[in-house]
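Exercise 7b. Backbone tokens:
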């Protein structure tokens, strides 16, 4: 028996085999569980194998139909390949392929979603340089383009630690009791990270004014040091509906000292002490783990957010919430797990 790829395809059916293979990979890529594409992939594979084994050239659709395991539809495509040089389906695919490649490229820029990517493609834009000329880019799209290549680089744990230390040192210079936690994929123990996610809080401090001052100090200090080099957002806050406490958020671009150091994306949250546990759970993730914990809370008549765990939550039709509920836990992570009556998960166990 032949090992795949071991035998050279005979020159006489080469184009047919190549084009069928492209179609097969296309269906393989778009297939979903139980969809008809699953059968197409199998049928294409069988047909390709059969054609590979032939010792003669297929010269017409009729000839193709006589090949065992080649059905009517595939035979028709072979006919197109012979008479037109290319299977018709492929020319549509090529168009789709180009669009999807360009849109994927655009979406890989920080701050660009699917809608923007499609809009830009439809306008005829094709390259990152095309985007750079746009007059109406948002702040994060501008930074996303400016640091495009650096932002693709994964950050090794050791470097994440150095970045975390920068923020911690700056915060502790303001108040020695401030806590700074590196969360996100780093806290889950990943060997490298896409960005650095930092949560800052100060024991017994919940008031927005004080949290804002902490954020301002850190940003001012780290910009002066040349460590924070650009913004992805201006600092902003989100207010909790339940208790009016504010979470301050910032996203930026940082760079450790050194001629060859790479620019990285950093997220900083300054949050009320009362909410620290809930924020740590949220910002440690991963997102799937967050979703299942929130679902579990909902099933217990509660609600989990980055502000805390809330009880007495009433839900109407379609599980739509009709009230906010009252805050029951959120100061520590442990407190939230306990209240949900589930075993505490260490951060490295939250890789769902
Ligand atoms: N998060 C979430 N839902 C989102 C985005 C984020 O629950 N849509 C939470 C879970 C993430 C955490 O915030 O773990 C941090 O977000 P990141 O995008 O920084 O993701 P990670 O740190 O987990 O991974 P990466 O290494 O890619 O940064
Ligand atoms: Mg992260
Ligand atoms: Mn992040």
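Sequence design result:
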């Amino acid at each position: 028996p032949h090992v795949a790829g071991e035998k050279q395809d005979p020159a006489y059916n080469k184009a047919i085999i190549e084009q069928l293979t492209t179609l097969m990979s296309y269906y393989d890529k778009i297939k979903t569980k139980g969809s008809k594409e699953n059968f197409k992939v199998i049928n294409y594979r069988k047909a390709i194998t059969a054609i590979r084994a032939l010792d003669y050239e297929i010269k017409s659709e009729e000839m193709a139909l006589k090949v065992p395991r080649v059905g009517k539809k595939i035979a028709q495509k072979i006919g197109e390949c012979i008479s037109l040089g290319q299977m018709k389906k492929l020319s549509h695919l090529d168009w789709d392929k180009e669009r999807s490649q360009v849109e994927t490229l655009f979406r890989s820029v920080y701050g660009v979603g699917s809608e923007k990517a499609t809009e830009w493609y439809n306008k005829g834009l094709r390259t990152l340089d095309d985007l750079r000329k746009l007059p109406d880019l948002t702040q994060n799209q501008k930074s996303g383009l400016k640091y495009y290549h650096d932002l693709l680089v994964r950050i090794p744990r050791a470097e994440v630690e150095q970045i975390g230390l920068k923020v911690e040192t700056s915060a502790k210079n303001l108040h020695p009791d401030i806590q700074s936690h590196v969360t996100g994929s780093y806290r889950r123990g990943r060997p490298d990270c896409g960005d650095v996610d930092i949560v800052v809080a100060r024991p017994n401090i919940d008031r927005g004014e004080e949290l804002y001052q902490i954020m301002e100090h850190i940003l001012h200090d780290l910009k002066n040091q040349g460590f924070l080099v650009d913004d992805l957002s201006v600092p902003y806050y989100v207010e909790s509906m339940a208790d009016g406490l504010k979470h301050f958020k910032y996203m930026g671009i940082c760079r450790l000292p050194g001629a060859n150091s790479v620019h990285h994306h950093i997220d900083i949250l300054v949050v009320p002490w009362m909410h620290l546990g809930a924020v740590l759970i949220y910002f440690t993730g991963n997102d799937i783990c967050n979703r299942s914990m929130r679902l579990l809370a909902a099933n217990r008549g509660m609600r989990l957010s980055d502000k805390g765990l809330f009880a007495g939550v009433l839900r109407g039709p379609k599980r739509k919430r009709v009230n906010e509920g009252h805050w029951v836990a959120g100061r520590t992570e442990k407190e939230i797990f306990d209240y949900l009556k589930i075993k505490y998960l260490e951060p490295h166990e939250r890789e769902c």
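Instructor comment: The chain is about 45% helix and 15% strand. The CA atoms of residues 107 and 115 lie 9 Å apart.
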